[in-house]
Specification:
The chain is an alpha/beta fold and 260 residues long. It has a single domain, classed as NAD(P)-binding Rossmann-like Domain (Rossmann fold, 3-Layer(aba) Sandwich), CATH 3.40.50. Helix content is 47%, strand content 16%. The chain has eight helices and nine strands. The protein has a seven-stranded parallel β-sheet with strand order 3-2-1-4-5-6-9, with helices on both faces. A two-stranded parallel sheet has the order 7-8. α2 links the parallel β2 and β3. α1 packs across α6.
Length: 260
């Protein structure tokens, strides 16, 4: 019965990883609470996929605005109840040159979206989940948060902060019944990564990523890199001495800046 279905909240559900996760959860029989700035795109996608009206709700929210995403979370609680899983997936990526004044504004926007937005996504649900004694808060990080790259300070730094924030939150919620899961994607084929102008090893289709992430979240793992090969690459890069790491990156193409 619909009343017995579990509920998942997903931010950034209008495209890419968020949309793939929404479809995977729907196929598994879950109800959906989908949050994004572009609600029209979610509604069009839901209609194309013939998602039942009674099994999903769409909330307009800008995760870069704390008040906006917190209000969406509160609306979800009032409309659909306390979710079983909350996936803070929404994020943006842009290259920066921190010697350029305008790029500091871009860096600020990335952190507001990827870090503060993630914390604000979780906030409305923490107390109700604690009171119930169950639930999972899932932060979508990135292998980019394991070691930074030239010109990627905004994105890599924000994803390193996501990893740290989830680790801190996991300790805060220990013993409450609420689990914190950190998922670190490698290169996933989405509109975001298609703009990259450098090689992307182990590139994975979004639906394949969503399936592996779904299974990891269901198992309640605390941390998982998907695909696992990128986890090995990232750990090896982390172990390299700085001098060697810096030499390896000479001439590597950088992520597009907003000005580009």
């Amino acid at each position: 019965m619909a009343a017995e279905r579990r509920l998942v909240v997903i931010t950034g559900a209008s495209s890419g990883i968020g949309q793939a996760l929404a479809w995977r959860y729907y196929q598994a029989g879950w109800n959906l609470a989908l949050m994004a700035r572009r609600t029209g795109e979610i509604q069009s996608w839901a209609a194309q996929q013939r998602i039942e009206a009674g099994r999903h709700a769409v909330y307009q929210a800008d995760v870069a605005s704390v008040d906006s995403i917190v209000a969406a979370g509160q609306a979800c609680l009032a409309t659909q109840g306390v979710p079983d899983v909350v996936i803070a997936n929404a994020g943006i990526s842009v290259g920066v040159d921190t010697a350029v004044r305008g790029d500091l504004d871009a860096l600020e926007r990335v952190y507001a979206t990827n870090v503060v937005g993630l914390a604000a996504t979780f906030q409305p649900f923490i107390a109700p989940m604690r009171q119930r004694g169950s639930g999972r808060l899932v932060g979508i990080a990135s292998v980019a948060g394991i070691r930074d790259l030239p010109g990627h300070a905004a994105y890599c730094g924000s994803k390193a902060a996501v990893i740290s924030h989830c680790e801190s939150l996991r300790g805060e919620l220990r013993g409450s019944g609420v689990q914190v899961v950190t998922i670190a994607p490698g290169y996933i084929d989405t509109p975001l990564t298609r703009k990259n102008r450098y090689g992307m090893p182990f590139l994975m289709p979004a639906d394949a990523f969503a399936d592996r992430a779904f299974r990891a979240i269901e198992r309640g793992v605390s941390y998982r890199v998907i695909p696992w090969q990128m986890g090995v690459v990232a750990r090896l890069l982390r172990l390299l001495p700085n001098a060697l790491f810096d030499r390896l990156l000479v001439g590597r193409p950088r992520k597009h800046r907003q000005a580009d």
